[in-house]
Amino acid sequence: MIMTMLRAFVRMAAAAAIGAVVLCGFVENRTAYAQSESSTDASNPLRLADTSSPRDTLMSFLTLSHELVVAWRRDEGFSDDVYVALRGLQETLDFSATAYVNSSLEQTQRILMLHEIFDRIELPPLDEVPGDAEVAAGDVEVWTIPGTRIRIRLETEGARAGDYLFSARTTGTLELYYRQVKDLPYKPGAQPLLEDWLSSPGQDVVLIRELNERLVGIDASSPRATLEEFLLSVNGAYRIATEAEAALNMSPPAISIAEAQDANDRASDLMLRAGTAFDLSDVPEARRYDTAVESALLLKEILDRVILPPIESVPDSSMVAAGAQEGVPYQWRLPDLSIEIVQITEGDRTGEFLFSAETVTGLSDAFNALSDLPYRREQGLRGVWEYLSIEPSPGFHEAYISTPGQFVPSANFLGRLVGSLPDSLMVLHLGQTRWQWLGLMLTTVFAGLICSLSFRAASAVSRKARTPISNWVLVVAPIVSALIVGAAERFLDEDLNLTGDVLAVALTTGRLITLFLFGWSVWRFCMALAATALSTSRFSKGSVDASLVQVLAGLTAIVAATAIIITGLRDLGVDAIPLLGGLGVGGLAVALAMRPTMENLISGIILFTDKPVREGDFCSFGDMMGTVENIGVRSVRVRALDRTVISIPNAMFANMELINWAMCDTMQISTTIRLRYETSDDQLRHVLVRIREMLHAHPKIGKEPLRVRFAGYGDSSLNIDVMTYALTNDWNDFFAIREDVYLRIKEIITASGTDFALPSQTLYFGKDQGLDEVRSEADEQEVAALRASGNLPFPHGSADRIEELDGTLDYPPLGSVDARSASDS
After folding, report:
1. What is the domain class of 600-662 according to CATH?
2. Residue 626's beta-bridge partner residues?
3. 103: nearest Cα among 179, 210, 195
4. Topology of domain 665-824, per CATH?
């Protein structure tokens, strides 16, 4: 098939090249032709044909066609004179209603057909053809050659307005007129050229038409165009199929299997083109091809048995335009039949004329009612020869439904086998032969057996494999089974060639099974992806990440499988809107019933994505504290300080105020020191200086921020606020550092001769010695010395002193276990 198309495109390119040469030759030689003796208007060197009156148009055509034949015979093929003559002849015809209007080959063929017609019929004397005088009188709009329907019409608009041309209807029907006269004898002196031109290199007009039919499709611009194109397509397929079948069955065969398969493909393309003449909007998408072909065959069988109306009575574009009513779709019914051609008002084919959807539905009943009638005979029936392709295609439908393959049975591998079967297996039951029923049964059993074996094999391998390999093995079985069912569908449709309702049931059943298997494979695929992800070291068993991966994989699988199934059901003709509505109502009921569970699930996803806490973090929540041990799909488990486990629903936990102590970079030490009121001013300053120096000197205390300030007067004390940060985020280290800082503060206060104040009244007795006067005096002298030297550290200490003190304290303290461990290491 691919090679055939390649060859076709090569020929198409050659034809396009010839058309380009025609145009180039015309441009280069138009002046030379205008100056030749045969010129029809020597006064205008740019005019190749005179079309100022019907007489001039006819004379131009006869003169130029004579020159064309002479140049062709003289030059033995294409030459500049041939191209110039062709270009002049093209100016005498209106090709606007011709298929493939821009094809030079198509135009040339029609020109030569008109030349052949004139070589066989008698033309009137020139003085009887309207000339310039009659045109000047203004009463000549159209002139018909006597005894024919060949008309020369005045163009009233467009680029050719004012010219008399062979009308668009005449040009478009030349093939029909030629067929009607081709058996008549030539007139004396005739110069035929059509056959020689068709046999010349590059003039494969049939192939060009085939390519255009595949690329352009059916002309459905009017009921007449639709009916004629339908008949042409079906008869073309019938001719190709019967000729190929007969050639392949010759002894020896006249064509090869490959050539027969190519003919089958070409016939199939034509039948598919004929199927585009139907409105298949009510047919499920999965069955449109088969319905189109079967409808085309049934309609052709009906039309081959009835008397068709004259072609002139079938509305064309002009009749449609004249009879159309605004807002009302145009329709036309074949006389005495329930077969209608209607104008489509919506969808991709809006404006086209197609056999109605009701016609498609009633074709089977109409055929059954007329199937016992004999085929129509062409002779003697009014209007028969007016159609381009009216010959019947006897037995085409019966051969299609009762033979393997599609249109050339012997090209299929089952063809020779079925041909050798006994007649008892060729009997029809419910539209299928007995051998087709037998093939359907065997195919079903074979496909079911292969699918069962694939599932068993996948299950056995999965049990022996490790995760995640075992999960991936399970994906294979439904995919393989779906492919097997799909292959069985194609075999039943294309090779066994089931038709009608039996094919519809088989395809629908197979498609439903395929949808289920693909949905199942999507589920297993998502689970395998989750298992693969969870097998990495990043995820720990039972962690929030692992739980959420499993949940998200399941949700993704459900959504994807549902989408696949709904899309497939829509292709089968199932209305998805009520189904989705039902799912929506059911989903709402389930959602209401599962609201708490869904809240916890969504909150778990929020905890997973926002990550206010992680597993192992120490946190505060509400009035409780503890270490997070697990964040699951439904709840969070926290190990409290008393070693109990607290389980909190995700929704509740996510709405609490959470303090994550594990996220601290440093930990605050904050306290208030209360000194006795007997403490002197300089003694208080001494305490403040020593505490600041101690904190600056401490290796585990951050330098900024660090505050040691006299903060105010309490009820029974002078208050000093201390705030700094321990360089750790471990609670055990923090408690140890804070303990060391507090002990050093106590030592400083004791060494300063003052003491901690108690929230009580002090009664002084005679034996009370009061404050240590010696130490107080020493402290005061030290502060006085600092004041005198200008080094009093208020409100801030000097940078040099802070740098001198940095890290000079022993920590851990000398003599402690930690200090001994540090010195040993």
Report:
1. mainly beta
2. 619, 640
3. 210
4. Alpha-Beta Plaits (3.30.70)
